[in-house]
Fold this sequence. Notes:
Layout: E1 2-8, H1 23-26, E2 30-40, E3 43-53, E4 59-65, E5 75-81, E6 87-95, E7 106-116, E8 120-129, E9 134-144, E10 147-157, E11 160-169, H2 170-176, E12 179-189, E13 192-204, H3 205-208, E14 213-222, E15 232-241, E16 245-255, E17 260-270, E18 273-282, H4 283-289, E19 295-303, E20 306-317, E21 333-342, E22 347-356, E23 362-371, E24 376-384, E25 389-397, E26 405-409, E27 424-426, E28 450-451, E29 458-459, E30 464-468, E31 481-488, E32 491-499, E33 504-505, E34 510-513, E35 521-525, E36 534-539, E37 547-551, E38 570-574, E39 584-588, E40 593-599, E41 602-607, E42 640-642, E43 652-654, E44 657-659, E45 673-675, E46 677-681, E47 692-695, H5 699-705, E48 713-716, H6 735-759
Parallel strand pairs: 28-33, 29-34
Antiparallel strand pairs: 1-4, 2-3, 2-5, 5-6, 7-8, 8-11, 9-10, 9-12, 12-13, 14-15, 15-18, 16-17, 16-19, 19-20, 21-22, 22-25, 23-24, 23-26, 26-27, 30-31, 31-32, 32-36, 34-35, 35-41, 36-40, 37-38, 37-41, 39-40, 42-44, 43-45, 46-47, 46-48
Amino acid sequence: MYLFFIFILIPLTHSIINLTTDANITGKSGTYNFIVEIMDKYGIILNDTQKYVDNGNNFAVLSFPSELLQKNKFNYSIRINDINDNLLFRKFNVQSKDYSGFNKGLNITKITDENANNNLIRINLTVVSEKSEIKANVTVALKYLADIISKTEEKILANGMQTISIIFDNETIKSTHYNGSFIVDYAIIGNKMFDFEQSTLLYNYEDFAKTPYIKSITDEKLDLDNNSMFDFLELNFTTNAKEPKQFAIQYSLYDNFNSFILNGSKTQLLNSGINNMQVLINGSKIYKAKVNGPYAINAILQSDNKTNDVFYKTDAIKQSFYTDYEMPLLPDLKVSLNAVFNKASKETNLTVNISNAGKIPVFNIFLDIFSNSTYKNSRTLDFLDKNGFKIYNFIIANSTNATLFTAIADFDNLVDEIDKSNNIANSLKPEIKLPNDMDDDGISDDSDALIGNEKSINTTIKNLTVIIGNISNLSKTFNGTLKINFFENNSKILELDYNFKIPLNLSNLMMSKQSNSSFGYTIIKGLKLNGSTKTIYVDRIDQSKSGVCIKDSGISLLSEISENCNGTNETKLECDAILKNSYKCTYNATIKKYKVEGLNHSGIKQIEYTGNAGSTASSESSSGNIGASNNANAQCTEKWECTLWSGCINNMESRACTDISKCGTSLSKPAESRACYEITIKEKNGEKSEENFKKTENAEKLLNNKNDAKERKKYSLPDITGYFLMPPEAANKSIGALIALVIVVAGVIAYFKFVSSKNL
Length: 760
């Protein structure tokens, strides 16, 4: 039996025309869509139809199966749209008649539940059906706490009263971790839903558990150093193992908004019965997530690569703030800035110092420098070790004494650090303690020939120390040529003679060596010795290898040394204490290191190599005929041909030289690199330089060709380790001061011509 709703369309000449401004469309016969929505007990039931209407056929009939309806009386709404789905008529909350006498189809009159020997829970539904042989899906949902479990089974319903049962198996009951009465929340038979709030008997999930499960999770907060901040979060997982076996527990921590905090796992051998698995979570990991509690735990118990149980506990950890846990080790960027204005030249010499005052290194640092007018600049720093620093110098033309300069590190907040407040500095509030002491060693930069200390060196080598002469305190004034030794845990790794006439900047030095490698290697970069050489010690990790491969060029990575030691500037050398091609390698059995001498640049790795057939491995104390190594090539005369010098890049120019005689030696090989410098038109308050000129032997000629330039020039010095540009002396406006300036410039050019010629 069906309910019928008959809707008589008002004649087209009446009120529908008044619902629209287009009388020509609504005033004609045509096809219309009729939609009716019934607001029943559990939601909305909708039906619609499309029909052609005119003056003689002006009604529509929509049918609803009464067996879908739960209520006897309800409200409904009506909508009428044209063929283009434009709304023409709408009416809400129309009240229906009472339809209590209509056929309900089927109904549930009773619900019971029972425990079947702790193997399952059976939910019994007493159903009255007015139809026979109906096949339908039957679903029952049980509610507990804030969760629901449900089961669906296909059933065949007969005519009349009958009992159908839905089974909840023991694993489903175990998964609830619930002890108490369930609530039968609802049942669905076919398309018809029945709402209930009926309680079941008392059930304990542990009675149904036939496989291992997590019984409970508790937590403790541990403050080991009594500083009122938790060092560890202790999680205790109480489990029930049905047999002795290796179990793994995987856990994840979330907040109540499902924001992930951390995860982890632990494997443990459990005995049969009740066990405890304890996990300690470092409190700094919770701090680093920066998510406040309370926290929820999701835990999975596994054995034999199968999941035994899943346990989720909301509000498991009621600790409210991540700041209650120990702060992790973090870097701390600090920016200081000093601006010196030259009134005569209208230039500002800007010095920016970025340092890491934190407890760990920091990577990928962005530094932005700008003024309150048009000047802006930026720098990127790949790595800054703890207690390390980097100094940048800028000369800004056409500035004023009132120009405000600002430097900001990590503007986009990409680095997690201890204190963000010291990431910014400006020229009105200089942060540097001593403007003339950039490395803060108490020595004025005017007389300081050593910039930085061991902590300024870019290295992963632990416990690195530096001894200059016999002095380990680097906050001293050094003069002349002195022996410098670098030690790792009192084991020497580098030695050299250095002339402190040119300042040495240790922040330019990069040192690395093997960590977990099967062979030894050492890489040194950033030391320019102006004609002298250095000696490097390499660990003999592989005792079967008796040689080294030398890459005598400025490299940063081990991968830049070829696999077969046959690349550019690479030399194979047997460690037999014999001088070959200006290099010598000697094995020291006492310290188990190779001593490699005669190096300019420094990239060395351990290889298997034996030179002349008659040579034998030698220790540090053995002596050899230094000239013997050249006997094989005594009759060969080297003849070198070189390419033109390259452009001036990073204050160096280079060329390639080839021995067309192919002697295999390099006794008379010309230099393949030399220092150079540039003349650069100065920046105009943020604008790019006008042009650059390569300067070598003809510096004076190019300078004379630029006598008509209206702007003063900036001279960049060679790339000398330890050099950084100091503020220029204030110039006088007088003609005498201008002449003195020309003399100084000429002296600088002559000096670097002299240095360049010596490097040749």
